[in-house]
Specification:
Elements (H helix, E strand, L loop, with lengths): L9 E2 L4 E2 H27 L1 H8 L5 H14 L4 H14 L2 H19 L5 H4 L2 H31 L5 H5 L1 H23 L2 H6 L4 H4 L1 H13 L5 H8 L7 H8 L1 H32 L4 H29 L1 H23 L4 H19 L2 H7 L6 H17 L2 H12 L4 H19 L12
Antiparallel strand pairs: 1-2
Helix pairs in contact: 1-5, 1-7, 1-9, 1-12, 1-15, 2-3, 3-21, 4-5, 4-7, 4-20, 5-7, 5-12, 7-19, 7-20, 9-16, 15-16, 15-18, 15-20, 15-21, 15-22, 16-17, 16-18, 17-18, 17-22
């Protein structure tokens, strides 16, 4: 018999109706979409951007300079993790997410307006770096905040599925970036791309960001955070409390994130550049292969989130780490000299392996920390790992190839990252069927 005091469309675990949950999913989706659409545009157009913002040198040096700006923008992310974590745990999840999307949208739009090296010399890469740092600061609060938001709104037994919306939305941003890059590359000449074509994707950030902020401002904060407010239990110093009482979960969460940090940016952002610049694959074909892989990845991510609710977080994360440790180098071997169908098949395989990790990781990380410091714990661990290993993935991959002369160097690096995450996940506790930590 149903509970007469609860509306039929209300979840008894969170007291949230289905309409509100749909808006929560939409708000989380569009925010991450905007954040990572920018990263996609930068990564997929790296070869063109390197010629716009840096002096004419050899191809490898220009690419390294472009990817170093990408990496340097990640250095501010740990600081951003502390700042956004403080806002999210002290003021509220909604406030942090509504502000971060505005900052990111404005900064992304500004990239489209930056002058070239040809016009202003060294000021061009300095301006690019400044804007990328602002973007990195903003992005440091988005992934963690959206994951915490969804986990705290999710119905009983569906935290993994709801949290998988976050990686799915980031991949959708990458997918649109891939499609636009492929379209622009196909329709425009090299001169047109260099002059103005590369700017077009960044101009889309402003309207998308305004839509995301509008949706977020129409939501209440999560039931878990509102309960803390009602009991006057909101911490005044979330970072201090988190570092004092949750050091082990913080270290394990950071270790578990290493595979995601390296694999996500190497496979979904750097791969088109790797295929075209290092293996000589046609640029349009490399974008097409990445587009197919991203589409499969998005579908797999939701399946993985659902599976993690049924079988547990650790089993799926361990499986992903083992697959990457054993399968990355053979997969990269198949890419060298491969035809289009083989390239697509290998990228789909790698994308499926990544989805096994990424669909599970957001709920796993959010469940490691109590509600009082959940935003801070997630944001700091996730952003530290991404600052050290994610933002540098494209740079390290290009540098290792330059040093060793082997196109397999990035594969060995990715396999090593998988072993680090495997150790961290093995040492962590299972959280899938446990209630969210409150203390």
């Amino acid at each position: 018999m149903s509970n007469p005091t609860v509306p039929p469309d209300t979840d008894t675990g969170t007291g949230t109706d289905t309409g509100t949950r749909r808006r929560v999913v939409a708000a989380s989706f569009i925010g991450n979409f905007v954040e990572w659409f920018d990263y996609a545009a930068y990564g997929y157009l790296a070869a063109t951007i390197s010629t716009v913002f840096f002096p004419a040198t050899d191809r490898t040096t220009a690419l390294l300079a472009t990817f170093s700006v990408f990496a340097l923008s990640f250095l501010v992310r740990p600081l951003g993790g502390f700042v956004w974590g403080h806002i999210g745990d002290r003021v509220g999840r909604r406030s942090a997410l509504s502000l971060s999307i505005v900052i990111m949208s404005v900064a992304t739009f500004c990239i489209a307006l930056l002058p070239s090296y040809e016009a202003v010399g060294l000021l061009a890469p300095l301006l690019l770096l400044a804007v990328r740092i602002v973007q990195g600061f903003s992005a440091s609060g988005e992934y963690a905040g959206a994951s915490a938001f969804l986990v705290e709104y999710a119905p009983e037994g569906r935290r993994g599925l709801y949290a998988s919306v976050v990686p799915a939305s980031t991949a959708t941003g990458l997918l649109l970036g891939s499609l636009l890059a492929a379209l622009l590359t196909e329709l425009l000449s090299a001169e047109q791309m260099h002059s103005w074509g590369w700017r077009l994707p960044f101009l889309l950030a402003a309207p998308l960001g305004l839509i995301g902020r509008y949706i977020r401002l129409r939501l209440e904060d999560t039931p878990a955070f509102r309960a803390l407010e009602g009991e006057h239990e909101v911490t005044r110093t979330p970072a201090k409390e988190m570092l004092r009482d949750n050091r082990r979960p913080l270290l394990l969460a950071m270790g578990a994130t290493v595979l995601n940090a390296v694999a996500f940016y190497m496979l979904l952002s750097y791969m088109p550049t790797y295929l075209s610049q290092e293996l000589g694959v046609d640029a349009t074909a490399s974008f097409l292969a990445t587009t197919v892989a991203l589409t499969v990845y998005i579908a797999f991510v939701f399946c993985t989130g659902l599976a993690s609710d049924r079988f547990g977080r650790k089993k799926l994360l361990i499986g992903a780490s083992v697959l990457f440790a054993l399968g990355t180098v053979p997969a990269f071997l198949l890419l060298d000299g491969a035809g289009l169908l083989t390239v697509i098949a290998v990228q789909v395989l790698l994308g499926g392996m990544l989805a096994l990790n990424d669909g599970t990781l957001p709920s796993f990380l959010a469940e490691q920390f109590p509600t009082r410091v959940r935003y801070s714990g997630f944001a700091i661990s996730f952003n530290l790992a991404n600052a050290l290993f994610g933002g540098t993935a494209a740079f390290v991959g290009t540098l290792l190839i330059s040093w060793t002369g082997s196109p397999l160097a990035p594969a060995w690096y990715l396999a090593a990252a998988a072993l680090v995450s495997l150790g961290a996940v093995l040492a962590a506790r299972e959280t899938a069927r446990q209630p969210l930590r409150e203390g």
